[in-house]
Amino acid sequence: MKKPRLKFQTPTGMRDILPEDLVYYKKIYSVADQYADFYGFKMIETPLLENYELFVKSTGPTTDIVEKQMYLLKTRGGEYLALRPEFTPSLARAYFENGMVAWPHPVKLYTRGPLFRYERPQAGRYRQFHQINFEVFGSKKPIVDVEIIWLFVKILEALDIKDIIVEINSIGDSQCRPYYKKVLTRYLKRNETSLCATCRKRLKRNPLRVLDCKEVRCQKIVKQGPQIVDYLCEECHDHFEKVLEYLEALGIPYILNPYLVRGLDYYTKTVFEIIPQKDQEIRQNAIIGGGRYDDLLKLIGKQNIPACGGAGGVERLSL
Predict the structure, then answer these.
(1) 164-170 and 268-276 as β-strands: parallel, antiparallel, unpaired?
(2) 231 in Cβ contact with 143 (< 8 Å)
(3) 77 with 62: CB under 8 angstroms?
(4) What is the distance between the alpha carbons of residues 1 and 150, in angstroms, rounded to a whole number?
(5) What is the distance between the alpha carbons of residues 223 and 92, in angstroms, rounded to a whole number?
(6) Contacts of 215 (CB under 8 A, 6+ apart)
(7) How far apart are CA 144 and CA 136, in angstroms?
(8) pLDDT of the chain along its 319 residues, tens only?
(9) How many separate helices (H) and strands (E) can be counted in the chain?
(10) Are 299 and 95 in contact (CB under 8 A)?
(11) Cβ–Cβ contacts within 10 Å for residue 315, how many?
């Protein structure tokens, strides 16, 4: 017998987390809490709502998160707020607002909880979802990039998630990336008619986003184009070389993915994703992602403070 449709149901893309599912959430949080404590990350919680402009300024006005996915509301006082779509800008804001600049550095923060993005629901991806998040503020050393990756590898091992691969790339910085953008734009313009409609728009506003496209025809064009690792300045090249050396020394399996850009404007130098090897051929299959963002804190607090971090999706980990 078909169940009658109830008048009130969860909104599209959101769900009740039932007791049998919460077992996995609790396990993931428990393991993450233990490793955060062991490696000296201090737990923090930020509000679900933040000033809308915080994400426009930091995440980037042309990113999918800002253009399509944020839940916005206008208060009675005329203030525009957004349900947080990610943690990093909130933690960067909290770092300055709460005087962490004066703390001993590096400052290592950990948080977890719900985030919100208006996008098409699919397996392991909901409009209200949950993450574990680790950030390190105040160190430009390559070993910090590797510490974040190592931390997540250890968490996955503790959760009995095996046979993973780290996909990694360097996307340069404000010194070398502008020239690569020019080279990439020239190449993409020669192939503009073969790009999808979305990427033709991206080409005008943010050509690096084309590298992140999931359309097969765009991927074919990108794979024949210039790679950013060939255009890194000496500082970015040396930084990336050190990161790879540390990964090898620790025995962490990785592959270079020259098309990995992570889709957020604030990243610099190292970007990475951790993927189960059995799912490596599937796009949007990362269970962990992150990277370095040395320019973000300058955007938010007008101080030149390097930083690096990463996040894991709890729904994907529980699957």
Answers:
(1) antiparallel
(2) no
(3) no
(4) 51
(5) 34
(6) 196, 198, 199
(7) 8
(8) 666 778 899 999 999 999 999 999 999 999 999 999 999 999 999 999 999 999 998 888 777 788 889 999 999 999 999 999 999 999 999 999 999 999 999 999 999 999 999 988 877 789 999 999 999 999 999 999 999 999 999 999 999 998 899 999 999 998 999 999 999 999 999 999 999 998 998 888 888 889 888 889 999 999 999 999 999 999 999 999 999 999 999 999 999 999 898 767 788 999 999 998 865 554 458 899 999 999 999 999 999 999 999 999 999 999 8
(9) 11, 11
(10) no
(11) 21
């979305």: which residue's tokens?
Answer: 198
Residue type, 100: M
- Residue type present at position 16: D
Residue linked to tokens 């938010």: 300
Which 3 state secondary structure label does DSSP give 109?
strand
* Tokens 């009658």 -> residue: 4
